[in-house]
Design a protein that fits this description.
The structure holds two protein chains of two kinds. Chain A is of the alpha/beta class. Chain A has seven helices and nine strands; from the N terminus they run αβαβαβββαβαβββαα. By secondary structure, chain B is mostly helical.
Chain lengths: 261, 492
């Protein structure tokens, strides 16, 4: 039987309209939850600051971001990274203090954090030892991560994107990073941050770590350095482009170009 | 398994006890050391032990093949086939993706870009070293410098002996194999010598190299464009010191552990940062590699006859260029090798001309090789020696920027930012400056200090020797930063 509006009474129309609205609302909610909202470009004359915080992997992201936004004077990438650091060794480098001091002087609109790659080590707190990746270690590490995120949240009004660790050549490290990423995701969401997973971006078709992949021009190149952890120039570009798009910054890049023109 | 770790300490303690318990049974002792060496290597990845065994088998069979015939043509073919097979293995694992990378660059530049068949190849640790051991053995047997080995255990142990397996020094079959046929012995001087070398190596690696690396070199080289000129200048000196401390530390610990097992390795570093000429630098830096390049590459390029002039310079340059590429599959290493090749050629040319100008007669440089073949030279005055050191040292430290940079662009960025002379010290601290300067200063002390100390300490009782060694290790562990960075030369 053919269906036409003439066959529907007023209450049926209202019901269908309501269902349609619900579907639209759900769809738009789904869209915002899976893809970050595209940001608007800074007003002419204003500068937008993007901070990248973390260890040497974060540094690769910062370099990639600088290239990604190269020639866009309204966007400034601030590289607040430090090699061979993490959240475990506060005696060596206290990231909580560094971030507090940094955010007193800077007010980035967007903050990307990549940290944890060096944290697979014993935690020593108040005379206790927590051997790496044990249950008690994870409990203590969770506390350290949460404490860091607390500080971050308290001292910034910017959007915070916590970028998960990438897979690496070492199978053992990759397995550990996978577990640590779960912790970061949970804590990030708990603190109202966005979690960006780059895990699948650097795997091959069979789901294994790969040093190679398509660069931004679609040419297959080496993306990871010989150490199987850090990124080559092509890799940094892919890394930054992916993260920027996940954070809805790709549009700003284009809009900023328009403003400049 | 890294040397400065508790795992290695336990491993070595057990092997030390077992090896000396088997002193009266040489064959069983060698079998134990061979098994230990494979365990040591397999500790990283047991799958790679197959490659090590395959390489050893290849060279063992080549040696037997050379022994089975006196026909010169057949012998040459066997030698060439074995060397080619060794180089193919090395080339595949180390240079395949570099070749593909370079080919991609070329096709992109020509506008005919293609996706190259990159392979996820894990570079087997120490492959450059055990390949060079294999080539050394086959060529020495071919040249008649050493006798072919009938016992597979001997040749397998020569190639895989754990103290030198992953980062040298590169042993010569003619020096090491005869030691396997003698009954091992250990006296108190050798024990003290071994302990002192291990302590010295640990101090250089765990304290000096590690502090310099994490405090200055690693952050600066990661992104030279964000560093100040002062930090960049300091870091390029510091890196030269770091790579010296790191690599000579490995050699020291290797020689020390071998000495404790009753084997003698030759010195691999002899205060190279105090060298007053490039030729002298290469006589003092990674001596086992320099002499290897001289004996197996330079002499292969040169042929039977001694030579002079352009051919000699070409061969010196090619030897250094390939020596650079041996360090890693990257154009930065090629540039580094080329700088040293050009430097050595220029130095030789200037010295020859200067000598001719001063004395009115030509200095015979015939057959001069990369290292060790300089004819006696007139003694230079102090000023000339100082200028020689200054030039040599800076050529070494500046070229090391290419050695350390992950790519050519980073090295160029480094030079540009360093010579912009902007910014004050952010990472350089008085502590790091003292470590760097102090490490260079000790290069001017008299050599053989450890040998002399071992000689003078041999009258100490075994209890005191053990106690001092233990306390020394603990102190080093206490004053060094936490964690163990891998040795730089592992990647080669």
């Amino acid at each position: 039987m053919a269906l036409s509006l003439s066959h529907l009474n007023r209450s049926a129309l209202t019901r269908h309209f309501g269902v349609l609205l619900l579907i639209l609302a759900a769809a738009s909610f789904g869209a915002t939850s899976t893809h970050a909202q595209s940001r608007s470009a800074p007003a002419p004359g204003q500068r937008m600051e993007i901070a990248v915080i973390g260890d040497s992997v974060a540094h690769d992201l910062a370099r990639g971001m600088e290239d990604f936004f190269a020639g866009k004077p309204h966007i400034r990438v601030v590289d607040k990274t430090r090699f061979a650091t993490g959240l475990v060794r506060t005696d060596y480098y206290d990231w909580n203090k560094v971030v507090r001091d940094f955010l007193r002087r800077h007010h980035p609109a967007v903050i990307f954090v990549v940290i944890g790659g060096n944290d697979r080590q014993t935690i020593r707190r108040q005379g206790k030892r927590y051997d790496p990746l044990t249950k008690s270690w994870f409990a203590e590490y969770d506390r350290l991560v949460a404490h860091f995120m607390d500080d971050l949240k308290q001292h910034t009004r910017g959007k915070v994107y916590w970028v998960g660790l990438p897979p690496v050549r070492s199978e053992k490290m990759t397995a550990d990073y996978r577990k640590m990423n779960r912790l970061y995701k949970r804590e990030a969401e708990h603190h109202g941050f966005h979690y960006v997973s780059i895990w699948k971006k650097f795997l091959d078709a069979s789901g294994e770590y790969s040093s190679f992949g398509d660069n931004l021009n679609g040419v297959r190149r080496r993306l990871r350095r010989g150490d199987g952890e850090h990124f080559t120039k092509d890799g940094r570009a892919v890394f930054a482009s992916y993260v920027a798009r996940a954070a809805g910054l790709a549009g700003i890049r284009n809009q900023a170009s328009e403003i400049r023109k | 398994m890294l040397f400065p770790t508790p795992e290695f300490a336990i491993f070595f303690f057990l092997i030390f006890i077992a090896a000396w318990a088997l002193r009266a049974h040489p064959e069983a002792r060698k079998a134990l050391l061979l098994a230990a060496s494979y365990f040591f290597y397999g500790y990283w990845d047991w799958r790679l032990t197959g490659l090590l065994a395959g390489s050893s088998t290849l060279n063992y069979l080549a040696g037997l093949g050379l022994a089975s015939t006196k026909d010169k043509v057949i012998r040459k073919r066997i030698m060439l086939a074995a060397v080619a097979a060794n180089l193919c293995v090395l080339g595949f694992f180390k240079y395949y993706n570099f070749f593909m990378d370079s080919l991609t660059d070329l096709t992109v530049a020509l506008g005919i870009q293609r996706d190259m068949p990159f392979l996820e190849i894990v570079l087997p640790i120490g492959i450059s070293f055990f390949t060079f051991h294999g080539i050394s053995y086959v060529v020495d047997v071919y040249r008649g410098h050493t006798k072919p080995v009938r016992s597979p255990i001997d040749i397998f142990l020569y190639i895989s002996f754990f103290p030198q397996l992953v980062a040298g020094p590169i042993l010569r079959a003619s020096h090491f194999l005869p030691q396997l046929t003698r009954t091992a012995s250990l006296n108190r001087t050798a024990v003290v010598f071994g302990f002192l070398l291990i302590l010295n190596g640990m101090l250089k690696k765990v304290v000096l190299a590690h502090y310099i690396a994490i405090g200055l070199v690693d952050p600066v080289f990661a992104d030279p464009t964000h560093a100040s000129s002062i930090d960049l200048i300091a870091a390029h000196y510091a890196y030269a010191v770091q790579v010296y401390c790191d690599f000579s530390a490995y050699s020291d610990i290797a020689i020390g552990t071998a000495a404790l097992l009753g084997y003698r390795f030759r010195k691999n570093f002899d205060r190279p940062l105090g060298a007053t000429s490039l030729a002298q630098l290469w006589q003092r830096w990674h001596i086992s590699l320099s002499t290897w390049l001289r004996d197996y590459l330079y002499r292969a390029l040169r042929g039977e006859k001694r030579e002079t002039g352009a051919r000699m310079y070409r061969n010196i340059f090619l030897t250094m260029l390939l020596g650079g590429l041996w360090h890693g599959a990257n154009w930065t290493f090629v540039v580094w090798g080329a700088i040293h090749g050009i430097g050595l050629c220029a130095e030789r040319f200037i010295k020859t001309r200067w000598h001719a100008f001063r004395t009115g007669r030509r200095l015979s440089m015939a057959g001069a090789a990369v290292v060790g073949e300089y004819p006696e030279q007139p003694k230079a005055n102090r000023f000339a020696t100082f200028v020689g050191w200054l030039i040599t040292f800076h050529l070494f430290t500046l070229s090391a920027i290419f050695f350390r940079s992950p790519d050519f662009g980073t090295a160029v960025d480094y030079f540009i930012t360093m010579f912009s002379f902007q910014g004050g010290p952010h990472l350089l601290t008085p502590f790091l400056l003292a470590l760097t300067a102090g490490s260079v200063a000790v290069q001017f002390l008299r050599g053989n200090g450890i040998e002399r100390l071992a000689e003078s300490a041999r009258d100490l009782s075994p209890v005191w020797i053990g106690l001092l060694f233990g306390v020394g290790l603990l102190l080093i562990e206490m004053i060094g930063p936490e964690g163990v960075a891998p040795f730089i030369y592992f990647q080669f």
